[in-house]
Design goal:
By secondary structure, this protein is mainly α.
């Protein structure tokens, strides 16, 4: 890897959103669903996952346009998962990122189909890559999506008392529901270059970061303010999270330890500049 200047997440968001508009134009979707998907896609997300993909990928000297397309595909799936999460049958949330959730804005039928579309579009994007790259990305991404759906299934099963979860069960749900996309984001670049050992290291970094991120998010749901968080609060009151089992301090310590393990892995790979920006992002996540 070669050291490179890392783009801040705020600068990257502006850059990425501008590129995303052109990527959307190339997809040629039905205008009925395109309006719905764009509404949620451009509703104020941090672009954390594409930011991770882009900056780690630049350390590996992977083509910038390619990294942006992978980030775009990843953010589409993240958006689709949030659209489905907010539906009345799952979390029944009226707001997301300070705006009406997709089903409140466009109706439940269109939100369901928009989410379905969002889970498929990335494979159309990956089909444009070289054969080996397309194969590697599609295989890894299909595993990622299956894991994400399994994690959401576990989450709802806990809430509906189909399963009475232990701490290990809750962490497994976090790994599947939240860490899966972070694992992909951290590890897709060494996958493209067939660097198997670094792929495994960065997958682990993504897994640890994802669980820590979810714990911080659980804390925001309980102690945040709507104007900061931008979604319905205390929606996790009937959900099984670490805060059902651990105290606030214990949960924070657990998350911080996982985050520090992520930093240790990144340090071993000499991702120094990336680490500095990731630590700033962690501070922002914890504050809100």
């Amino acid at each position: 890897m070669k050291p490179m200047k890392v783009m801040t997440i705020s600068d990257f968001k502006y850059f990425f959103d501008k590129k995303s508009n052109s990527f959307f134009d190339s997809l040629k979707m039905s205008h009925i669903l395109e309006a719905s998907l764009k509404y949620s896609f451009f509703s104020g997300g941090k672009r954390l996952r594409p930011w991770i993909i882009y900056n780690i990928g630049r350390y590996y000297n992977i083509d910038e346009e390619k990294l942006l397309k992978i980030g775009f595909a990843t953010e589409i799936v993240h958006t689709a998962s949030l659209i489905h999460d907010d539906l009345p049958a799952i979390d029944n949330s009226d707001y997301r990122r300070g705006s009406e959730s997709n089903h409140k804005k466009f109706g439940e039928w269109r939100a369901i189909l928009t989410g379905d579309l969002g889970f498929i579009l990335p494979f159309k994007i990956f089909a444009e890559f070289d054969n080996d790259e397309s194969k590697y990305l599609s295989e890894f991404f299909s595993e990622t999506i299956l894991s994400l759906i399994d994690g959401e299934t576990l989450d709802v099963s806990f809430e509906k008392n189909i399963i009475n979860p232990t701490q290990s069960d809750i962490e497994n749900m976090y790994i599947k529901k939240t860490s899966a996309l972070f694992e992909f984001s951290f590890a897709c670049s060494p996958l493209l270059l067939n660097k198997k050992e670094e792929f495994e290291y960065l997958k682990k970094a993504g897994k640890n970061f994802g669980v820590a991120f979810q714990i911080y998010d659980d804390l925001k749901d309980v102690y945040g303010k709507f104007e900061d968080v931008g979604k319905d609060l205390n929606n996790d009151e009937n959900k099984f999270t670490f805060l059902k089992i651990l105290s606030i301090d214990e949960a924070k310590t657990y998350a911080n330890n996982l985050f520090n393990e992520t930093i240790s892995i990144l340090s071993n790979l000499n991702l120094t500049n990336f680490i500095e920006e990731l630590q700033k992002i962690k501070s922002l996540i914890e504050r809100k």
